[in-house]
Amino acid sequence: MCSLWISPSLTLTGQLVRLEPLTLDHVDALREAVRDGELHTAWWTSTPSPDAMAADIRNKLALRDAGSMVPFACIRLVDGVTVGVTTYYDLSPEVPRLEIGYTWSRASSHGTGTNPDSKLLLLEYAFEELGCQRVGIRTKWSNHQSRAAIERLGLKRDGILRSYARLRNGVVDDAVLYSALSTEWPAIKAGLTTRVNRHVTHAARDAAQ
């Protein structure tokens, strides 16, 4: 069963963030986080609204209990602020492979290094602890910000699934598939580590001023 492959109590700690098991205790903090930038109002995203946050978490916990998802709350280490949510899903231990997704982060955290640190933690655990051969990330064609962020991580575009998902405004959109292979992981890790270290250095310099 997939839930035995990855412990639902898994916690990963990096230099900027901690990924801890998502629970209903995170509801209020995540409602506040999604209001930072009003992320849920963007037509190209499926980010839950504040009113739908509890239901969204319950759905992810049900998928966790079924062994098909491992959801995390992302916590910023410097101040304990809840940044957002991310998950492992599409778990296939027989390959092994998985996907990282259902990710969103408060707008004020964009460009601060929390996303690359989070991805570094997730990719590192997947490749080095789980022995994954492939880790995938997908996004919608219309979400240009997400596509650019994934490409900056160093993942390669596998292809496009046309007319794959219907957006909240009713428009049918394509899905863009990206992946990293175990043979590519050392170079991706080096690049992500450099990015995270740069943000840590800048944060330390700002704190000293």
Automatic annotation (TrEMBL):
UniProt-listed Enzyme Commission number(s): 2.3.1.-
Keyword Phosphoprotein applies: no
Classification via InterPro entries: Acyl_CoA_acyltransferase (IPR016181), GNAT_dom (IPR000182)
Gene, per the UniProt record: ydaF
Cross-referenced Pfam families: Acetyltransf_3
Domain (N-acetyltransferase) ranges: 18-156
SUPFAM superfamilies per UniProt: Acyl-CoA N-acyltransferases (Nat) (SSF55729)
Keywords from the UniProt entry: Acyltransferase, Transferase
Leading EC class: transferase
Domain of life from the UniProt record: Bacteria
Name of the protein in question: Acetyltransferase
GO terms assigned for molecular function: acyltransferase activity, transferring groups other than amino-acyl groups
